[in-house]
Amino acid sequence: AIRINSDRKAVQEFFSLENEDIICWEYGQKAVSVPNYMVIHDPETKSIIISIRGTMNVTDVITDALAHHEPWNGGFVHRGVLRSAKYLVKHSLKNIREAVKKFESKAIQVIGHSLGASVSSIVTLLLREQCRDLITQGIDIHAWNFATAPCCSLDLACKAETENCIDNFVNENDVIPRLSYGNLMDFKELVKFAASELKNEKYKKLSSKDKLSKILTSIDDYRTCLKSNSATQKLYIPGTIYYLYKGFYRTHVNSSVAYYTKDIVCEKSKPDLFTDISLRRNWLFHHFPD
């Protein structure tokens, strides 16, 4: 049988929510810069949860593509992300405030993945601006983001308030946290340079092994130079960043054979370490991990 509003009912059943716990349900939106999201009350943590979906359809891709920078709070942000965040706050703030009062909530938790994580960051900053009275009452407003796409200037990304209210988790080689217009332009220049080096006559007399070594060194030097002298404005991940990667540790040695264990390591990182796009075979798989 086909159920009407099956997504909504699935969420209610999975999280054991009552009808009144669904505060806003804004899925199925297909307009540019109009996010798909839900606002729910979580009885277990006494929190209001704002969950924002990432890129899933053509209009989301267009929002991603609105990569022009817009001045905001003394810096600049991704235009499409800012418009999406403003839409959410404008259309749902009243309901969020009423829910906080009704359920006597202790926190507002904003959650997103990919494009949704970028929107989550700006939504959190907007809410903290417009809900100072709630913060004064001891209600925490915090973002928990996964695979966040770069969305603001470095000065905004590194503000103490931003770092205190936004936590991001980046999975190893995931390309999305490194993907902004400025980074793409640098990557394009790097590809053009690599193509020209492959045709460079100065390597003609070298063996294949030496030629490859020289070209790779040249490309690496050019990448370093490009990174330090690039004229393109970059966008960064706002807030505190936690970098997840696989680490190998030797556990013991038995009969001269070393045994290793593979663990996930979580380390605190910095926004400026995610401005370099490198080709990795798993850069998309790490965006959607198993």
Describe what this molecule looks like in 3D.
The protein is α/β, with parallel strands linked by helices. The protein has 2 domains: 6-178, Alpha/Beta hydrolase fold, catalytic domain (Rossmann fold, 3-Layer(aba) Sandwich); 181-229, no CATH class. 39% of the residues lie in helices and 25% in strands.
Summarize this entry quickly.
The protein is 39% helix and 25% strand.
Name given to the CATH homologous superfamily of the largest domain: Alpha/Beta hydrolase fold, catalytic domain
Query: Taking all residues together, what is the mean pLDDT?
Result: 86
Coarse structural class: alpha/beta
Domain count, please report it: 2
Summarize this structure as a short list of keywords or feature phrases.
single chain, 290 residues, alpha/beta, Rossmann fold, 2 domains, 8-stranded mixed β-sheet, two-stranded antiparallel sheet, 9 helices, 10 strands, 39% helix, 25% strand, DAG_Lipase-Related, phosphoprotein, sn-1-specific diacylglycerol lipase
